[in-house]
Please model this.
Amino acid sequence: MPASSPLPTRRFGRTDMEITRVGFGAWAIGGAGWAFGWGSQEDADSVAAIRHAVSVGINWIDTAAVYGLGHSEEVVREALAPIPQSERPYVFTKCGLVWSRDDREARPQRVATRESLKRECEASLKRLGVERIDLYQMHWPSEDGTPIEDYWQTLLDLKAEGKVRAVGLSNHDAEQLARAEALGHVDTLQPPFSAIRRDAAAAELPWCAAHQTGVIVYSPMQSGLLSGGFTAERAKNLPENDWRSRADEFIGDRLTRNLAFVEAMKPVAARHGVGVGAVAVAWALGNPGVTAAIVGARSPAQVDGWLPAASLALSADDKAELDAALKTLGVGSGPI
Model:
């Protein structure tokens, strides 16, 4: 169990885990060479970023088997190896995406059979070098015909066997959450949520609040768009091996509106003496249904950029100013 953190923590749903309000997201450190890579990434930089995050008090890491097709989990293991067991962060990972051994660039398949999930769990335990995974999440709803009741029961069984500490769902809607809850408690949900992508606030966040399900949102900076360091020129020059080069929010009129919202965030950031990225993360954390936010980093400097969000509370005036900008600019989707 991680040592106490100097950063604010919250109880993670009904679990026995107290987690910091921001966690280290390990998607980008999977590197390039697969369908949803972020471009080239040096492992040494990734290791340095993870160790720095832990040193400043971040007490959980979110990764997935599919990130880098196993590589992200291996990098997490390398980064944590010299850290005493009592000081290591919680490690969360995901299952349900199976990749081709022959074509690394092929889109991973959403497979949820019992045999496949149990096999994935054993592989993640080995790559991470742990005896138990702190949180095991179904990455996406299945596309192989496996009903949610079947794959959720598999995760519940893995928890009962002691292979995992807690189980959750990622990218599932409120109706799917209810179907799973009927079999056994959904410990956690991991939805996308940012000032640009607000859809989860309509149904999923209220459902989780009503059922004491912990929520860790991903992409609170909209994959870097709201970091304060993104420009139209940078978007135009994203390499082909960076999935964002093909994403709707990074091109055309959407990009223009998103970057205009970044400009609107700057006065709020200046008042608090923090970067725009920290304000973006704090906006997501301001929803009462959100336990914590997953924030990616590829270097120690990027960690320092969003770390203030761990203890930043936006005022009512701040929120009103940002919400007004969202409405005026017509940014994103979901309730404001």
Summary: The mean pLDDT is 94.
